[in-house]
Amino acid sequence: MAYVRKDVSTLTSTERRRFVKAMLEIKRRGEYDEFVRMHIEHYVADGEGGLRTAHMTPSFLPWHRQFLIELEKALRRVDASVSLPYWDWTRDRTASSAPWTADLLGGNGRSRDRQVTTGPFAYRTGNWTLKEGVTDGKFLTRDLGRARDPIALPTRSDLEGALSDPVYDVSPWDSTAARGFRNKLEGWGSGRGSAAWRTHNRVHRWVGGAMVGGASVNDPVFWLHHAFVDLQWQRWQRRHSVHRYLPARPPAAGHAQHGRVVARNQKLPPWNLTPDQLEDVSRIYRYA
User: Fold this and answer.
1) N or C: less crowded end of the chain, CB within 10 Å?
2) pLDDT above 70 as % of the chain
3) Does the pTM of the predicted model rise above 0.90?
4) What is the pLDDT of residues 56-94, one digit of tens each?
5) What are the extents of the domains in the chain?
6) C-alpha closest to that of 25 among 98, 65, 79
7) Distance CA 73, CA 284 (A)
8) What are phi and psi of 115, to 5 degrees?
9) Is the CB of residue 93 less than 8 Å from the CB of residue 4?
């Protein structure tokens, strides 16, 4: 039977407690840091060579869909009642709303070094030391809203701009694609600075601290954010039911993206699954 992913703001106190406890346990076991390493490894940008699977590529959505499922498997081995909640950042838009409460993810980082000092994932608890990353920092950091250069979270209108595009993705299948649902949702835009960060990307920047870059998994809000992104893919699929993941076939030899993107029926590293197999996950979970 499919389990349910709920809006984080609707969780009961018991559901919050069990979710946090399961997260801390897989961290204690060392499993959590494997997920951080995996995301760093597969965070390949346009300018780098080789296959891109997690970002700046059509497989951004199926890759993260399976990534979330694997995390849930780990959580449910600890507590079978636990599933990932999602954070609706079009509605819960302040640094004091869910999920930034003391019984969930804790709050903002302190001003001098952005260290998170509240909640169960604060370094001072001894339960959440960062062990994998692109820096040597040991504690979780956040800069909600970016104090020195403020930005706002994406709005429902911003999200609608992505959902209304009936085409999943278009050539050149990277961060420069001006059309297509995938890149509009992932949020790579033209321009410099905050103008170039849209939708999914803007949320990472709004949270700041550890959520910026390939090691963003170090902040547990990563999963709640991506669960909401995954929900948008489901909503897009329902709205545009005749449209599917693209490209349907691999770019031909000689094409700039040959061997660099995953087509619909190609295996998606590091799993033995294809985007085609991940388009319908209704047998695994559903959203409340």
Assistant:
1) N
2) 100
3) yes
4) 999 999 999 999 999 999 999 999 999 999 999 999 999
5) 3-287
6) 79
7) 11
8) -70, 130
9) no
